[in-house]
Specification:
Blueprint (H helix, E strand, L loop, with lengths): L9 H15 L2 E4 L4 H14 L3 E7 L5 H14 L3 E5 L6 H4 L5 H20 L3 E3 L12 H8 L5 H4 L4 H10 L25 H17 L6 E5 L5 E5 L4 H6 L1 H9 L6 E3 L14
Helix pairs in contact: 1-2, 2-3, 2-8, 5-6, 9-11
Length: 275
């Protein structure tokens, strides 16, 4: 593959990233199909060939369409990938849904990734954490650091914009895919997480996407009182508002007696906002 055309800011970071990955000698990438982990898996595959593998944690918190897209993206990149069953719902500290829920989820999944690394004789387990993630609420990252997980994108200085630029240049299919965290991130802290609730939230979001086809960012927040708050990106709020009756009817069929279409639109970390 010829060298991609990159901006002066991203080109040296790409060189650093390649060196970091090559130096690993072998790598298991915690892979979700999102742009960050997809880019890392792409570069790892380019540099390490069969000594790189992406590992997808399959659980009720991963929407079926997200799993299908992750599989297709890996195949399109020519990357090896494996699937492991994650059992975070069996971890009580996860299921009770505290503010640091992600710590317990990440610990469960990383245990599976470390087992794959040992089985395949690969010395490094890595994630798609980048240099801008440090400012977010990310208790899962504590679990990663405690287990010695590497973050090559952050180490090379990649920002979110850098990642999308390089992913596009390298032909990563998900280069412009919106971030889609796990379904548990939609459930208000303190509300117990169950398989049924995760499936309900996932179906609610599919209904909203069908009703608001312009929306790229869709969240259905399951609030503490059992109501649903629908968020789409600001540019699609008008369309969501116009489709409110349809959205309310569709979500009522799933058991949501009260549905709000948030006029402020989607924003990260909304469940941490004070009412």
């Amino acid at each position: 593959m010829s060298e991609p055309a990159l901006s002066p800011e991203v080109a040296p970071k790409y060189a650093r990233l390649r060196g970091i990955v090559r130096g690993a000698g072998g790598m298991v990438v915690g892979y979700s199909g999102g742009v960050d982990s997809s880019l890392l898996l792409k570069v790892a595959t380019m540099e390490l060939k069969e000594r790189a593998v992406g590992v997808i944690g399959v659980s009720p918190s991963l929407a079926p369409e997200e799993l299908a897209e992750a599989r297709e993206t890996a195949r399109a990149m020519g990357a090896r990938y494996r699937e492991v069953d994650a059992h975070e719902l069996e971890v009580e500290d996860y299921a009770r849904n505290p503010v640091n829920r992600c710590y317990w989820c990440k610990g469960e999944i990383l245990g599976k990734l470390l087992a794959v690394a040992e089985e395949e004789g690969l010395p490094v387990v890595a994630d798609g954490y980048n240099s801008e993630d440090a400012g977010d609420h990310r208790p899962g990252q504590q679990a990663a650091r405690e287990r010695g997980v590497a973050s090559p994108l952050a180490e090379a200085g990649f920002t979110k914009a850098d990642i999308r630029e390089l992913a596009r240049a390298l032909g990563v299919p998900s280069w412009d895919k919106p971030a889609r965290p796990c379904l548990a991130s939609r459930i208000a802290y303190g509300v117990r997480i169950t398989r049924d609730l995760l499936e309900r939230v996932g179906e609610a979001e599919r209904k909203v996407r069908a009703a608001v086809p312009r929306a790229r960012e869709v969240r259905v927040r399951h609030l503490a009182d059992g109501s649903a708050r629908v968020e789409v990106e600001p540019a699609a709020v008008d369309q969501a508002t116009a489709a409110r009756e349809l959205i309310v009817r569709e979500l009522a069929a799933l058991g949501y007696e009260k549905v709000e279409v948030d006029p402020k639109g989607y924003r990260r970390g909304a469940l941490l906002e004070r009412p």
